[in-house]
Amino acid sequence: MIKRTKVASAINLAVVSSIAAGAFVASSAFAAEETAKVERIEVTGSRIQRQDMETASPVTVIDAAAIKAEGFTSVDQMLQVQTSMAGAAVGSTTNNGADGVAQVDLRGMGSQRTLVLLNGRRMVNSGSGADSAVDLNSIPVAMIARVEILKDGASAVYGSDAIAGVVNIITKKDFEGFQFDMNGSGTDKGDGQSGDVSALYGFNTDGGNYTFGAAYSDRRGVIQGDRDWYDPLDNTSSIIPTGTLNQKVIDANGNWVKRTETYDYSNDVYFQTPSERRSLFANMTQELGNDVVLTADAIYTNRRSNQQLAAQPAQIKLNVCGDPRVQDPTAGCLTLDQGMIDAGIKADARGQVQYNRRMNDVGPRIYNQDTDTWRLSAGLAGSLDVHTGMNWNVDYTFGKNEAKTGVDNSINATLMANSIYADPYAWFEGSPLTDDMKDVSYQQQSTGGNEQQTLSAGLNGELFDLSAGAVGFAIGAEYRRESGFYNPDPVVVAGDSTAAQQDPTSGNYNVISIFEEVSVPFTEKLTGEFALRLDDYSTFGKATTWKIGLTYTATDELMVRTVAATGFRAPSVAELYGGNSGSFDYLTNPWLPASEQTGQILVNRTSDPDLKPEESESYTAGLVYSPSYIDGMSITLDYWRFKVTDAIARADVQVGLDACHAGDAEACSTFNITADGDLFNLTSALTNVGSQDTSGIDFNLAYNFELFGLDWKVSNDTTYLIKFEQDGENYTGTIDGNMGAYARVRNNFSISAGQDDWSVMYFNRYIRSMTDVYTDYDANDNPFVAVRGVDSILYHNISGTYHVSDNTTVSLGVKNLTDEKPLYVTNGSDAGTVPQVYDTVGRTIYGGVTVKF
């Protein structure tokens, strides 16, 4: 939806300060000198100041009031329910592999392809180290004035990463007085409590304003086993606490037999992960004289988060004594006795047997993160008495993220193997581990971080007049340096852990950019917007991007708009310098029957310092309609399409496994698989071979009116997905645990009514039915591709706000009012569903109090 408001005129100080504080892009407004009587504003997606917020690019605006009314306690919660999101962005419901990070995923194209700005300037990437996207946990909700979502490719304006669009978070500034907020929530099951408190204080000085804030939030966990809809069969593992040798166990008679038992790990796993955050933030504007203004904003956030998984599913390769195929005969070995041989236990092509054991005797894996994120941005801005007046700015932004991460109850594979060699039947018989045997555990400790420095300068104003108006322009230059590192635990680096081996990551790059924009009023009805940008990277060289936009005001009621643009994404530090790392991916081994599948297979992931940038093309076309015969109504309709080529991606490993099994020699070579199915060196390399092609239609209706003495607001957002293809695979209308959800239709509807002192709102969120494609097995235990349907779902929320007095406001609401249960997905990422798509927590009650002085 396009924000359509009239903004009052401001003094010259506000003109210059808004330019500096927003780096030309915050949706602020100003007036020129009184004699000019011209109101100009700035919008996300352009550096040119203009008289109308309606540009060629579609922008959605979410203000602080809407954030509070819907009970959002984190930025990712607010963004992930937008209809323009797809896929499966990580957040509070991601218990495995996210390290407590929360991200945004516009169009389902990947979080690395959505650029996140804070007050119009880049936010430092953050997480556990060498990260490719912004951790939204580093931005407290308490400091947000509004969020602007640009749903268009914007690399020509902002550079790398803005392929799918831009999320611009605008903080509260120019605040006077004191405000205290306290909010809390919890499920009707008595768990998942969350609370946050924040304070905001601001004051004016002669020619300036200073605003300071602090926020604290605490989110408690929800255990999977505490939900009655949960089926333990959806979270079972073949790796059991008593252990297996080549999937065989010892029965009561001392014989080796096929394993039939499975392990339910639901009581050790979170649906909602705990997190605690502390933040300090500040904004300042100070006039220095001679029409020069100094602006600055600062933020610091500390996040302490946890995730928990079931005890380590240790998978140990044991050398068989006397087998000539053993790679390292000095590493110890296991003698296969006659009982093992009679049961069919034999060595593989490397002279090894597989021992698996769920290490419950040691305890669950408890992941913890302690991250610190700093960001300081400062700038000078002023005006020049040239032509009709021009504005300049110089800005510097520094961002840094540091993280300490750990995993309790990890298992040292080398120590465990030696312990088995020393006394094998103490392990094989399934008895509880002794204290000496438990000494194979250790605590993983890793460190990582990211750093970003940006220096930019710009000039904007009017070039000359045409018969239809002035030609506006903006030019500028920027220098940016990005660096990152990640140091895994030494045991992991050495490959001695039952967790996947991983090499350290360390590297940096810099980029110098020049950019320009021109806005040309060809006629009173037709305006053209043109942008061109050149980026020169220290890694791969130069990238040039452009944008062409047109707006045509057909009538006072109807505006037609279109944008064509190119974009790119530079490879990240981790993609360039990450080295080798292992990942236990959810895969099916086509060489094994269903009874021998372990669910996860170790994949060696490699990076490449010679990666090239991704390239993209985007196109949007639509209209903005405000019918004069229905006062207060506005409608937007936009078609969009994004195409990404040379995408940095890993080829689909499951597809490679299946192709190799079917006799495709090239697939076997690509993934380092032998023809007989040896997956010991199964490899997935980063290359520029990926692609994406997605298109759809966005529709928005906003209607404000009065009826029965009440003020009403109705809003409806719909996204219809026409197509989403990635790497030649069509995911349109499908859902799975790896890619997430690409529903054909997503719809958000809200209606509110109120008077001066109170308001109530009803909100619903609809996700259309999807198909679930998965691997099944026939009567002969042979795998085949199966398809099932996943129903549509509709969530209902209600909330109310009451102004107790001029100083005090209270709010109360319920999310998922009808307690809709998450839908079953055969190959879901967790608990038989996809928690990043469906609500796994259930009905939640929230409320808050705001006090202003």
Question: What does this entry look like structurally?
Answer:
With 853 residues, the protein is mostly beta strands. It has one domain: TonB-dependent receptor, beta-barrel domain (Maltoporin, Chain A, Beta Barrel), CATH 2.40.170. Helix content is 9%, strand content 50%. It has a 22-stranded antiparallel beta barrel. A five-stranded mixed β-sheet has the order 3-6-7-4-5. Strands 13-21-20 form a three-stranded antiparallel β-sheet, covered by helices on one side. A hairpin with a 4-residue loop joins strand 43 and strand 44. The two termini are 33 Å apart. Pfam families: Plug (PF07715), TonB_dep_Rec_b-barrel (PF00593). This is ArgR-regulated TonB-dependent receptor. It is a multi-pass membrane protein.
By oligomeric state, this entry counts as: single chain
Q: What is the CATH superfamily label?
A: TonB-dependent receptor, beta-barrel domain
In what range is the share of β-strand residues? Answer: over 45%
Biggest beta sheet attributes: 22 strands, antiparallel, barrel
Shape: globular
Mean pLDDT: 90
What structural category characterises the helix and strand content?
A: mainly beta
Please indicate the count of domains. 1
Radius of gyration: 29 Å
> What is the CATH top level name?
Mainly Beta
Low-confidence stretches: 1-39
| Strand runs, count | 45
First and last CA, distance: 33 Å
CATH topology: Maltoporin, Chain A
Helix content: under 10%
Q: From the 3D coordinates, which CATH architecture would you assign?
A: Beta Barrel
Instruction: Give the number of helices.
Output: 12
